[in-house]
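<derive_structure_tokens>
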Amino acid sequence: MTPPPPDDTPTTRFPRVEDGPRHAARPEQAPEGDTTERTPTLLEQMGGVPGIVASTVPVLVFVVVNVITSLTPALWAAIGAGVLVLVWRLVRKDPIQPAISGLIGVGVCALVANQTGEARGFYLPGLLYSAFLGVVALVSVVVRWPLAGVIWHGINGHGQGWRQDPVLLRAYTWATSIWAFVFAARVVVQGLLYGENAETLLGIARLAMGYPLLGVAILATVLIVRRAERSRAATA
């Protein structure tokens, strides 16, 4: 009698990790015994909504204290607010990297303001950083390596093969162009206020054009990419 052919079903060729616990687990929790690390979302890397809100506290404190008093008390108040945010996240056992980064940023801004002797110096590092990011985003579009796609696929470990897909390349080009526009808007508006030495308005613009505009850019990126992916799926 001829022996039966070897079992070549998917269950013998692939591990069984996809069965059972993985499907029952919530998306944000890895199933018991699964050692695969889940890639944190962009929001999680920024410390979640509390992290985003907390990161604006030092700037807000600086603006208010500078209006009420003067530069030196405002600088110390901003640094103190950054330290309190860090302690608060430590007590809550939240990721502290966003708080540490924010504290370092506040320290650099305070140093520049102290050296220049002007409150507007507090906003100069952020202004220069936005200009740098805007140039990088624009150059990435020109050389057909749109930054939105490079970062997204780099974070998720998907490689850069998406550049061979004209639909995705076009989508990420549009998304990166939006980011370039956001950075350019910051530079133009805040740069004009910086030149006019309108310190209070400059602080307000810094807050208004910070995470609110960032949220708009993220939402636009998601919508553009999802539409491109649906278009690819429909023509596949």
